[in-house]
């Protein structure tokens, strides 16, 4: 079906090669089939969902129709260093990256945790405070306290006049010390 759609689009576009060679449909059909197979291999290797493969392949063909003359499609898989080959690979890569990025974004659901501080019991907070006094530095205790109060890493970094990366690193080390203390 994809071959028929692309061949129909090719028939609608003017081509110097088609005027010169009336049997250009056969090489074009082979080129479309070969490009489709190549794209499917790319999608499989990129671990894209199989139900998206036809859409991704169609996007590649749309880009090719816009940027590469139809009579040169047969060379995009053969010649290594041509402008058409580079454009084809650019199209495949752009479609692949866009599809991968689109998969990472999802709507928020009720399953996600609330950003508000957890309702921990007084006993839990006291146990953590006791352990923190024994094993953590004053700066690490302050980080843990601010985190427990619901502060975000950028807010803590601004408060302590340091970078968010440094806060994350110190917080990670403090949590590891507490986990070790509690035997977790």
Characterization of the model:
The chain is mainly α. The chain folds into two domains: 2-104, no CATH class; 122-182, Arc Repressor Mutant, subunit A, CATH 1.10.10.10. The chain has nine helices and no strands. It has helices at 2-12, 16-20, 25-45, 53-67, 83-104, 122-135, 138-148, 153-160, 164-182. Helix 4 (53-67) runs antiparallel to helix 5 and helix 7 packs across helix 9. The two termini are 57 Å apart. The model is unreliable at 15-23 (pLDDT under 50).
Produce the secondary structure layout.
Blueprint: H1 2-12, H2 16-20, H3 25-45, H4 53-67, H5 83-104, H6 122-135, H7 138-148, H8 153-160, H9 164-182
**Strand count, sense and closure of the main sheet?**
none
Query: Given the C-alpha coordinates, what overall shape results?
Result: rod-shaped
- Stretches where pLDDT falls below 50 for ≥5 residues? 15-23
N-C termini distance: 57 Å
Average pLDDT: 78
The helix content is 55-70%
Query: Whole-number radius of gyration?
Result: 29 Å
Structural domain count: 2
Indicate the structural class: mainly alpha
SSE string: HHHHHHHHH
Number of E-state strands: 0
Question: What is the count of helical runs?
Answer: 9
Strand content: under 5%
Short description:
The protein has 184 residues and is mostly helical. The protein contains nine helices and no strands. It folds into two domains: 2-104, no CATH class; 122-182, Orthogonal Bundle (Arc Repressor Mutant, subunit A).
